[in-house]
Amino acid sequence: MIPLSYYLVLSAILFTIGVVGVLVRRNAIMIFMAIELMLNAVNLSFVAIGKHLDSLDGQVFVFFVMAVAAAEVAVGLAIIVNLSRNKETINVDEINIMKW
Amino acid sequence: MTLFFFLLIAIVTVISAILVIVLRNPIHSALSLVLTFFSIAGLYILLNAQFIAAIQVIVYAGAIMVLFLFVIMLLNLEKEKRVSEKHPLQKAFGVSIALFLLGGIVSIVATGVLYGNMGTETAAKVSAVGNTKAIAGLLFTDWVLPFEITSILLIAAIVGAIVLTKKEL
């Protein structure tokens, strides 16, 4: 039997790797992939805690998170395609039109 | 034996996740992200969540990553790779803030006790009917309203993606 804390620590490590990716990479698609990594880390802790508490609600929640992630990826990648069409770049440092 | 498999899959997951954010070429990152998703599906199998493992492979490793690879190849990012780093301190700050976050989470997880109401779906009870059937039973009774709202969300996302990428309507 694997203790719950192992799963939670693994999930924390994956989440931190995702945070590093968002903070360090400047390519919009790479930032998107790092966000997917963070979503997966949270999903893992949902399922692990759900098993720990003898409940299936965590798995149902992961189902909804996956649906939201699919919707987010579809719209976000459409925005990135539009950005590269209009500004010729997807480097987030150069996309500062809403900055003041 | 289970612990051995857990450690093996965990090491693969962490290494491929690090490769995702370290590799310079976005296509290589996407492929190692696929490996990360597969190994997380293996962790779900270890957690007796077979249905979630299946849709992890089908939805994440299949649909979402194909979409990513499609967009990466569509945009032709060859010149993006040579973008110079404008902020030399950014990496150091990012990594140190993230390590601070990791320390915080791990210290809470290692020292704290997890409270919560115990559910009724024990492992024996779930395996008697099957994982997928048990989840479907919950999804279409207790969670039926969020399930229907999810369908509206997906419709909105499809319409939004088409409207955003179409040049003129």
What is the element layout, followed by pairings?
The complex is a heterodimer of chains A (100) and B (169).
Chain A: H1 4-24, H2 28-52, H3 57-87
Helix pairs in contact in A: 1-2, 2-3
Chain B: H1 2-22, H2 26-46, H3 50-75, H4 88-111, H5 123-129, H6 131-139, H7 144-165
Please summarize what this structure is.
With 100 residues, chain A is mainly alpha-helical. Chain A has three helices and no strands. Chain A has one domain (4-87): Helix Hairpins.
Radius of gyration of chain A: 17 Å
**What multimeric state do the chains show?**
heterodimer
Please give the CATH class of chain A: Mainly Alpha
Structural class label of chain A: mainly alpha
Order of helices and strands of chain A: HHH
Name of the top-level CATH class of the largest domain in chain B = Mainly Alpha
User: Whole-Å distance between the termini of chain A?
Assistant: 54 Å
Strand content range of chain B: under 5%
Ranges of chain B with pLDDT <50 over ≥5 residues? Answer: none
Query: What fold name goes in the CATH topology slot of chain A?
Result: Helix Hairpins
Q: How would you sum up the major sheet of chain A?
A: none
The CATH homologous superfamily of the largest domain in chain B is termed NADH-ubiquinone/plastoquinone oxidoreductase chain 6, subunit NuoJ
- How many strands, what sense, and barrel or not for the largest sheet of chain B? none
- Tell me the domain tally of chain A: 1
CATH T-level fold name of the largest domain in chain B: Four Helix Bundle (Hemerythrin (Met), subunit A)
Number of continuous helical runs of chain A: 3
Given helix and strand content, the structural type of chain B is mainly alpha
Features:
heterodimer; A: 100 residues; mainly alpha; Helix Hairpins; 0% strand; elongated; B: 169 residues; Four Helix Bundle (Hemerythrin (Met), subunit A); 7 helices
Describe the fold and architecture:
- The complex is a heterodimer of chains A (100) and B (169).
- In chain A, 77% of the residues lie in helices and 0% in strands.
- Chain A has a single domain, classed as Helix Hairpins.
- With 100 residues, chain A is an all-alpha fold.
- Chain B is mainly alpha-helical and 169 residues long.
- In chain B, 77% of the residues lie in helices and 0% in strands.
- Chain B is built from seven helices and no strands.
- The radius of gyration of chain B is 21 Å and the shape is globular.
- The mean pLDDT of chain B is 87.
- At the A-B interface, helix 1, helix 2 and helix 3 of A face helix 1, helix 2, helix 3, helix 4 and helix 6 of B.
